[in-house]
Design goal:
By secondary structure, the protein is of the alpha/beta class. It folds into 2 domains: about 150 residues, Alpha-Beta Complex (Aspartate Aminotransferase, domain 1); about 240 residues, Aspartate Aminotransferase, domain 2. Helices cover about 40% and strands about 15% of the residues. The protein has a 7-stranded mixed β-sheet with strand order 2-10-9-8-7-3-4, sandwiched between helices. A 3-stranded antiparallel β-sheet has the order 11-14-13, with helices on one face. Helix 2 packs antiparallel against helix 9. The radius of gyration is 21 Å and the shape is globular. The mean pLDDT is about 95.
């Protein structure tokens, strides 16, 4: 019997990095050693004081329902943290606690986008942006990036050419997945000016705001008129190695946050009570584990870059943010006689066990794209395995 699925399910996308992970797991089950560069998970443990706070909350009976927008101690701690790091003046009313960062995307869109409204979003970019725009019957307007000598920069020509009277929202992911693009002040100010001139509301995806190797993260909310039209997506997953805890927040103007919290009522009721107390400990507790994690990630980044840039046909910059590398593999593919970057991915996986995603896992390539890229996540693989795995890939590509 054919199931009469609702039409909207056909508009729902997925995160294909998990499919790559399934391929890698199948290969590993056959006895092949796999080097997991495909998923942005962390193999670094959650700090002990955060784990202890969750266990203590369970023992204290904090296992029932709690306020829909989140427990007050966490909302207050979040308001203090975001006010301090983004130079804003927030309170608990500006915070809605979420089951991770991902729900903020859908709830932002449901709150501010009507069917037929246009939404600018990065491509390549986190695939759930496009999925949620399409699912809720918006019109997605993708914008890309330009490769520069130091990394990647926003393609402002595409952004400005696509703005119309129907343009309502823009999704902006500074410290960007997958390219690790980081806006300088001039680029961020130019984007802020576009948003205020065209009355565009902003989802500022700041999942990697704290995964910075040198300097400190900067938010677009620092520019005049942006705090009033921006929702910040915050997640505990990266900074505190809490990917599986599913804890995040939407932070922004009270009217928008109140609407987002109404979606909480209709969706999950509330975020897990005792996990929220772990979030309080994360924000207020010692930050030594975070600093140690950044040291580990720096070593992994530098090791991977050195091997990649010494590999024939591959080039990559040295990003200052995230735990991703987005190497250009065009010349390596040309040498192999390949045109499809997915063929390249599967070839390397089968021959070496090195598993990674490609540009194609982060949106349909835009018209005019000619260069080929892969994404390597070094968050879940040790330095010795980086050396071993990328060493095998280097040997394969020089044959």
């Amino acid at each position: 019997m054919s199931v009469p699925f609702a039409e909207r399910t056909r508009r729902l996308g997925t995160e294909t990095a998990f499919a790559v992970g399934a391929e890698a797991a199948q290969l590993a089950s056959s006895g092949v050693k796999v080097y997991p560069f495909h998923l942005g998970d962390l193999n670094i443990p959650t700090p002990e004081h955060i784990v202890e706070a969750a266990n203590r909350a369970i023992k204290e009976g904090k296992t029932g329902y709690c306020p829909t927008p989140g427990i007050m101690p966490l909302r207050e701690a979040m308001a203090d943290e975001i006010s301090r790091t983004r130079n804003l003046n927030l309170n608990a009313d500006n915070v809605s606690i979420q089951t991770g960062g991902k729900p903020v995307i859908g709830k932002f869109i449901m709150t501010l986008m009507n069917p037929g409204d246009e939404v600018l979003y990065p491509n390549p970019g986190f695939p759930i942006y496009e999925s949620m725009i399409n699912f809720h019957e918006g019109v997605g307007k993708p914008y890309g990036f330009r490769e520069t000598a130091t990394g990647f920069a926003l393609d402002f020509e595409t952004i400005e050419n696509q703005i119309s009277p129907r343009t309502k929202l823009i999704i902006y992911n500074n410290y960007h997945n997958p390219t690790s693009a980081e806006s300088d002040m001039q680029e961020m100010e130019r984007l802020a000016d576009i948003c205020t001139r065209h009355d565009i509301y902003v989802l500022s995806d700041e999942a990697y705001f704290d995964i910075i190797f040198d300097g400190k993260g900067k938010s677009i909310t620092r520019f005049p008129g942006l705090a009033e039209r921006t929702v910040i997506l915050y997640t505990f997953s990266k900074k505190f190695a809490m990917t599986g805890w599913r804890l995040g927040a939407a932070i922004g103007p009270r009217e928008i946050i109140d609407a987002i919290s109404r979606f909480n009522v209709n969706d999950e009721s509330c975020t897990n009570n005792f996990v929220q107390w772990a979030g309080v400990a994360a924000l207020k507790g010692p930050q030594d584990d975070y600093r140690n994690m950044m040291g580990i990630l720096r070593e992994r980044r530098d090791t991977a870059i050195e091997i990649l840039n010494s590999t024939e046909g591959i080039s990559v910059g040295r990003p200052n943010s995230t735990f991703y590398l987005f190497p250009n593999v065009t010349r390596a593919m040309e040498k192999l006689g390949m045109n499809d970057v997915e063929d390249f991915r599967k070839f390397v996986l089968e021959k070496t066990g090195v598993s990674f995603t490609t540009r194609n896992h982060f949106g349909t390539p835009l018209p005019g794209e000619t260069q080929k890229y892969i994404r390597l996540a070094y968050s879940g693989i040790s330095t010795p395995e980086i050396i071993e795995g990328l060493g095998k890939m280097k040997e394969l590509l020089v044959q």
